[in-house]
Amino acid sequence: MIPTATDTATTATTTKHPARKPAPTNSILHQPKAVWAVAFACVIAFMGIGLVDPILPAIAESLDATQTQTSLLFTSYLLITGVAMLFTSWLSTRIGARTTLLIGLALIVAFALAAGLSQNVESVIGFRAGWGLGNALFISTALATIVGAASGGASSAIILYEAALGLGIAIGPLLGGLLGSISWRGPFFGTSVLMAIGFIAIATLMKKEPVRPTPTSLSAPFKALAKPALSILAIAALFYNIGFFILLAYTPFPLGLDEMGLGLTFFGWGIAVAITSVWVAPWLTRRIPRSRVLWSVLLLLGVDLVLAGVFVDSVPGLITCVVVGGALLGVMNTVLTESVMAATDLPRPVASSAYSAVRFIGGAVAPPAASLIAGLFTAATPFYVAAGSVVIASIIVIAGHRAIAHIDHEEEDELVEAEAITAGE
């Protein structure tokens, strides 16, 4: 995400309409066509988070792949997304948000289509990596673009953006289950078509930015990790993400449901993530210090993951743990990224991209590691490993409290909360 683009666009809007009256309560629905085009593309982009969950077993069966090989669909996607986040600010501040959006969309269209046409799991893994690159470029600039182009001020734009984000996270698994029940290739083709529509809409309706943001240094995210507060939160996020992605990427296999059953299960997960990230997390941090929210929710997530291991042979029990886990993950994603933004005086996208690159390592390693552990021990063991990992994350937060204590006293506005939700998801 690019604060300079957001700040510039927001300032430009304020200057152009200095005497604008407060927007009516329904102004969120009266937006330029370009805003709706980006919002539509946001829904599709965030759908990609849970889209492949319902089809993982089907891909393994159809392409004669092992569970570990199939789980690499998450690894390649997350690894490239994390690495790309180190460079998206540098790129978008030089070529502009609109161009960055279009490149990201074009990559998703091409790689999702190629994944659907693949004849072996290795190809799908490789094309998911390209999809991750496109998603990183798109997501890093979408919020700034909507805020800059929306009418009714930044507040209306943020509400619209968060609605698109929540809708995408929730319906991604459901659409994956519906299309996956026809063929495992369906979700990939569906994403490609929908993103192509988004590309055409943005290319047609969005004008180039009148003001180019201040370029970001290529080395800035790397230097940011030398800051003690940021490094503590990033390492905690790495261990947290191991638990996160074991729950997300490994659970479809022990559940043993068909594509539609998995789609509905992770639809419930997505609804829980969306509700708690958009509404519950901000409510909590207005009442409880951020650091306390972090270690408390991490411990609760550890308990949930232990219960997932206990109920690994019970479909209703495991589904319940998935949905409850989603609610806890939604809080963690937002509060952890919000804490990162408050931890240093660095520009928000610099801090966020450095932190994301580290935490995605945990997400990339977790899915194949979980499958290997399950093969060596029992189906429940990966959940216990995940629980141990999030407990380690909570210990890191508690032990490093002196270095991060100031995050409890930083007040954040709506824009920072929206950026935190984006980076967290």
UniProtKB/TrEMBL annotation:
Low complexity: bias regions: 1-16
Region listing for Disordered, in residue ranges: 1-25
Taxonomic superkingdom: Bacteria
GO cellular component, as recorded: plasma membrane
The entry's keywords: Membrane, Transmembrane, Transmembrane helix
InterPro entries in alphabetical order: MFS (IPR011701), MFS_dom (IPR020846), MFS_trans_sf (IPR036259), Tet-R_TetA/multi-R_MdtG-like (IPR001958), YfmO-like (IPR053200)
Major facilitator superfamily (MFS) profile domain sequence ranges: 34-405
Keyword Transmembrane helix: yes
GO MF: transmembrane transporter activity
Membrane topology label: Multi-pass membrane protein
Protein name (Swiss-Prot/TrEMBL): MFS family permease
Source organism: Herbiconiux flava
